[in-house]
TrEMBL record:
UniProt source species: Effusibacillus dendaii
Biological processes annotated in GO: regulation of DNA-templated transcription
This protein's encoding gene: acoR_3
Residues covered by the Sigma-54 factor interaction domain: 336-566
Key word Chloroplast present: no
Single GO MF descriptor: ATP binding
SUPFAM superfamilies hit by this protein: Homeodomain-like, P-loop containing nucleoside triphosphate hydrolases
SMART domains per record: AAA (SM00382)
The name this protein goes by in its record: Signal-transduction and transcriptional-control protein
Keyword ATP-binding among record annotations: yes
Keyword vocabulary terms for this entry: ATP-binding, DNA-binding, Nucleotide-binding, Transcription, Transcription regulation
Length: 632
């Protein structure tokens, strides 16, 4: 007896024991108990458009993850009579894609977004069974209970993220004659891709919240405060260990007070997450806890409601945020002295970020001090006593980066050491790995590196044994990574992962107020090292240095100062000496008007117009004309 005959016996003759697989028979029996008519030829359970909009808003993260996956699949399949469906965790269709052929049939059967797709609305289908049993389910058209769906073969797979059921991804095709295994593979791989994207997004949001918490001037001690974050729908998006312990205590309390209650959430949590800027106290197992809820916003967008939980005794310990001494003690502030307000802010973020465990991306032109900053960040972090390892991705042939980074197993390739070799990540264990010129990491390797970042483990080249690692990554690039992402030359997911904090170091020309101090500091350090009297600049010489554009940034400044230290014999350095060390040719034009360049040339030539004209590469008469023009 085939499935169609079994179905006829079941629905027409009302037999109970028919020859179909157990999952289908169970579902048919539930349909019978629910009084579903097998003659149903139209889906009749749509929510209103207002409700539909609300439901999509509620599932915006799921949709953002699923729609690109559906679109990609749809582009591959269109024209073949395929229908792709996405149901949320409550069984409502929140997205659907169908080609013209499939759409016609959908229209006849009332299959459209907003339909509720549970067994009590649509009978047995792959999707409704998957929604009920929360396992993947493939069904052929003849296994479907209601007439409306007995044309579709259907395959559905639940989407789970960290154990949480998010919805179901479904692939259908007009039957008969489909290869059900193919539909099944499509549904499972689609659901997996959506889950992967959701997991990634969740981690990103989690890290964003953490970094925002760090940046907000909240008076909290991260070590002893429970932190619970909720999205705008009241769903927990992040909790630290202390918060998990606190919730567990609350659940125990709930059970004790009201053993028959099904509600797991304690009313105090409900109250805190629903109202920002609220405070509460609760006494649990001999300890009083103070709760505060805060609204976390970023660029005027609500990011999360954060509930801070502090055991009372610890609340008394306060940590003033902007302790002046903290700045003085900060390695980052000590390494980069600045009067530039914007750069000051950057340093403040860098110092705070340094004390977190998050990845940091340092951006800045060549020679601005990215390596210097990475080292300061390491010294500022709790990892300061552990190794700081640097790897410059641009300095290695592309084929070698993987083995440098991950190490290799014995005999992994010709020329490999017999006993294998640990890579830089392993060498940095417990400490910091600085990846300079990250933009030069080959695309294929970026995916492997991202996985290592997420899973906190690496596998040496040529080995299959994963090795757990605990490393803080700081990456740097002089290229605009976002531009590379847009051009498809750098992975977007890796960019987001590295970019939890971005520290942008401005070029010297954008922080002119710092130049004098830097010059004096470098001069005295360099002279001290060379065992000579400290050289002093005359105001004119200093002015010329301040006018220079410094295209090579701090590196160039350091080199010039060192050359002066070793080559300039007098203790005073005046304007006449400047031209020996600085090239005011092309580079200086960036910063100077014509008048300023003439002034400069005259200063360098100590007022000698013939020399000044030579310096400017113009004739003497041309110089005279210009002097007249500028009334000089
Ligand atoms: N804050 C600073 N104070 C003094 N010297 C500095 C500072 N930052 C960097 N330098 C000096 O400037 C030079 C260049 O610094 P660094 O190598 O960190 O720059 P970078 O941005 O990493 O350069 P690249 O992009 O070329 O790798 C080094 O000699 C360093 O000692």
């Amino acid at each position: 007896m085939n499935v169609t005959q079994s179905w006829q016996q079941f629905v027409l003759n009302r037999e109970t024991r028919v020859n179909v697989r157990k999952e289908i028979l169970d579902s048919w029996q539930r349909c019978r108990q629910l009084g579903i008519s097998h003659e149903l030829d139209q889906v009749a359970s749509h929510i209103s458009s207002d409700e539909f909009i609300k439901r999509r808003e509620k599932n915006e993260v799921l949709l953002a993850a699923a729609v690109p996956v559906m679109e990609e699949l749809y582009n591959h399949l269109k024209g073949g009579g395929y229908l792709l469906l996405l149901a949320d965790a409550d069984g409502y269709l929140i997205e659907m894609m169908a080609d013209a052929k499939a759409q016609q049939i959908c229209d006849r059967g009332g299959i459209s977004p907003g339909a509720r797709w549970m067994e009590d609305n649509v009978g047995s289908t792959g999707l409704s069974i998957a929604l009920r049993t929360r396992t993947a389910m493939a069904t052929s058209a003849t296994e479907h209970f209601c007439t409306a769906f007995r044309i579709w073969d259907c395959s559905a797979c639940p989407i789970y993220v960290d154990g949480e059921f998010m919805g179901v991804f479904d692939v259908c095709r007009v039957g008969p004659g489909n290869d059900i295994r193919e539909l099944f593979t499509l549904a499972v791989s689609g659901a997996r891709a959506v889950a992967e994207r959701l997991r990634y997004e969740r981690n990103r949001i989690r890290e964003e919240i953490l970094s925002e918490i760090l940046l907000h001037s909240w008076d909290i001690n991260l070590q002893s405060t429970g932190i619970l974050s909720f999205d705008k729908w009241g769903k927990i998006i992040h909790k630290n260990k202390l918060a998990s312990e606190f919730i567990h205590l609350l659940q125990q309390e709930n059970q004790r007070l009201n053993p028959s209650s099904q509600t797991k959430e304690h009313h105090v949590i409900y109250q805190m997450k629903s109202h920002s800027e609220e405070t509460a106290e609760i006494f649990l197992q001999g300890q009083r806890y103070l709760l505060e809820s805060k609204q976390l916003t970023k660029q005027d967008q609500n990011l999360a409601t954060v509930v801070l939980v502090t055991p009372e005794t610890q609340k008394k310990i306060t940590y003033p945020v902007a302790k002046p001494s903290q700045e003085e003690q900060s390695e980052v502030h000590a390494a980069f002295k600045t009067k530039n307000p914007l750069f000051k802010k950057t340093l403040h973020v860098a110092a705070k970020a340094a004390r977190s465990q998050a990845c940091i991306l340092i951006q800045g032109e060549s020679g601005t001090g990215k390596d210097f900053m990475a080292r300061a960040i390491h010294r500022e972090s709790s990892r300061r006593s552990k190794p700081f390892i640097a790897l410059n991705c641009a300095s290695l042939p592309k084929e070698l980066i993987a083995s440098e980074l991950f190490g290799y197993a014995p005999g992994a390739f010709t020329g490999a050491k017999q006993q294998g070799n640990p890579g830089k990540i392993e060498a940095a264990n417990g400490g910091t790995l600085f990846l300079d010129e990250i933009a030069d990491m080959p695309l294929e390797l970026q995916a492997v590196f991202l996985r290592a970042l997420e899973e906190k483990q690496i596998t040496r080249v040529g080995s299959t044994t994963p090795i757990p690692v605990d490393v803080r990554f700081v990456a740097a690039s002089h290229k605009d990574l976002w531009l590379l992402v847009e051009k498809g030359e750098f992975r977007q997911d890796l960019f987001y992962r590295l970019n939890v904090f971005t520290v942008h170091i401005p070029p010297l020309r954008e922080r002119p107020e710092d130049l004098e101090l830097l010059i004096n500091q470098m001069l005295s350090a360099s002279c001290e090292q060379a065992w000579r009297n400290i050289i002093t600049f005359t105001p004119e010489a200093m002015e010329l240095f301040l006018h220079y554009a410094w295209p090579g940034n701090l590196r160039e400044l350091r080199n010039v100062i060192e050359r002066i230290t070793y080559l300039h014999e007098q203790d005073q350095f005046d304007a006449r000496h400047v031209q020996e060390f600085l090239d005011f040719g092309e580079t200086a034009k960036i910063k100077m008007s014509e008048r300023e360049r003439i002034e400069l040339a005259l200063k360098i030539a100590n007022g000698n117009r013939v020399q000044a004209a030579r310096q400017l590469n113009i004739s003497r008469s041309a110089l005279y004309r210009k002097l007249e023009k500028y009334s000089m």
